[in-house]
Design goal:
Binds and transfers iron-sulfur (Fe-S) clusters to target apoproteins. Can hydrolyze ATP. The chain is 29% helix and 24% strand. By secondary structure, the protein is of the alpha/beta class.
Length: 401
């Protein structure tokens, strides 16, 4: 190092040893904070329900007995306090700032908890916004927290970059919706995480379907999703497929997000727990409905399921599990309990397709050939579902509305 060094590496051309040493930009949390896991929730664009997913994740893990908190990093568009019905303001002392606890004990910090009025706009430039987010980490007395969820603004700008560089992020969940355009933008978020070496825990697809109140059939207003192809290309998992549900929207408007329930909500929590138990995010189990070694024409009546455990695009091991019997709703739950992430078959009833998707399990129908070859094609991105649905069951009705 030059004796005249002023520590300003940005304007220095010297190739000194100190300059070559990687600089750790991680900030230390407040001395009164003991945070075990930091999970970022991001999206490539706005309007896909990122704050909703953040809130549901915190609620789900809180119900499991974990101490949860939310850092609202969306400074210019904060919505977390509204979803939890928080109207009070955060208080502070010489020691630091105290978060506000929700009705069930979830700790929250948002710019709206500091502004005089919730509707006051935050007209700040990027560096000031990024600095505020950093202060939510360094100056807030979070106490003991098992899971801190960071609700980030959409895109790949200043705030996500600040969070990735300054906070010890253990992984991120990327939220999207079914449209092809959104999937393209989501890939930008995936690539940013790869560049920053932040693990991607998986993808959550919001507004994917709705349940018809008249015929109880599930409909997909934006068409069949292509997110499974994106997930496969990056070795990721589709964690959950969330519905368009007016009751959930009403709960957010009424500040009652903690009263929302649903099986898809529990599956999000299951995935976080499994990731916490050191299950590799790239590993997956692919089940093939088989007759002998060939793909069966109908998964419910197959002889057995060949389950392939894979990682990094390769098959690690294979096992054959006899079909325990076909009855409504049983096989999707059975394979879910086996840890299956993908089910491949020649054909499948619409009810089973819905149950698999509800549990975040990808469904590939229309496959033919030898089971192992089909799995190899899938891992190489050469196999996609053709939507083959069997209509032989009485419950496979159609909606006349």
């Amino acid at each position: 190092m030059n004796e005249a060094c002023d520590q300003s590496c940005g304007s220095c051309n010297e190739a000194c040893d100190e300059r070559k040493t990687p600089y750790d930009m991680k900030e230390q949390p407040h001395a009164g904070s003991q945070i075990q896991k930091v999970i970022g929730v991001v999206s490539g664009k706005g309007g896909v329900g990122k704050s909703l997913v953040t809130s549901l994740l915190a609620v789900s893990m809180n119900r499991r007995g974990y101490r949860t908190a939310i850092l609202d990093a969306d400074v210019t568009g904060p919505s977390i306090p509204k979803a939890f019905g928080i109207t009070g303001k955060a208080m502070g002392s010489e020691t630091g700032i105290f978060p506000i606890a929700s009705e069930t004990g979830i700790k929250l910090m948002s710019i709206n908890l500091l502004l005089p009025n919730d509707t006051d706009p935050v007209v700040w430039r990027g560096p000031l916004i990024a600095g505020t987010v950093k202060q939510f980490w360094t100056d807030v007395i979070w106490g003991e927290v098992d899971y801190l969820f960071v609700d980030m603004p959409p895109g790949t700008g200043d705030v996500p970059l600040t969070v990735f560089q300054s906070l010890p992020v253990d992984g991120i969940v990327i939220v999207t919706s079914p449209q092809e355009l959104v999937s393209m933008i989501v890939e930008k978020a995936v690539r940013m995480a790869e560049m920053m070496q932040i693990p991607v825990l998986g993808l959550v697809e919001n507004m994917a379907w709705f349940q018809c109140p008249s015929c109880d059939t599930r409909h997909y207003p934006f068409g069949e999703s292509h997110l499974d192809m994106l997930a496969r290309r990056h070795g990721l998992k589709l964690l959950a497929s969330l519905p368009i549900d007016p009751a959930v929207a009403a709960a957010c408007d009424q500040g009652a997000i903690e009263k929302v329930s649903g099986e898809w909500l529990e599956e999000l929590g299951n995935h976080l727990e499994r990731a916490d138990q050191n299950e590799g995010v790239n590993g997956m189990k692919i089940a093939v409905a088989s007759d002998g070694t060939q793909v069966s024409g109908h998964f419910g009546h197959c002889e057995a399921f060949h389950i392939f455990e894979t990682d990094a695009g390769k098959v690690l091991r294979e096992e054959r599990v006899a079909n325990p019997g076909h009855r409504p709703g049983f096989l999707p739950q059975f394979l879910h309990e086996q840890g299956v992430n993908v089910i491949v078959s020649g054909g499948m009833g619409g009810g089973a397709v819905d149950l698999f998707r509800e549990n975040g399990i990808e469904v590939v129908t229309g496959a033919v050939g030898e089971a192992r070859e089909v799995v190899s094609m899938y891992l190489q991105g050469q196999l996609s579902s053709n939507g083959s649905v069997c209509h032989e069951h009485a419950h496979e009705g159609t909606c006349g509305h």
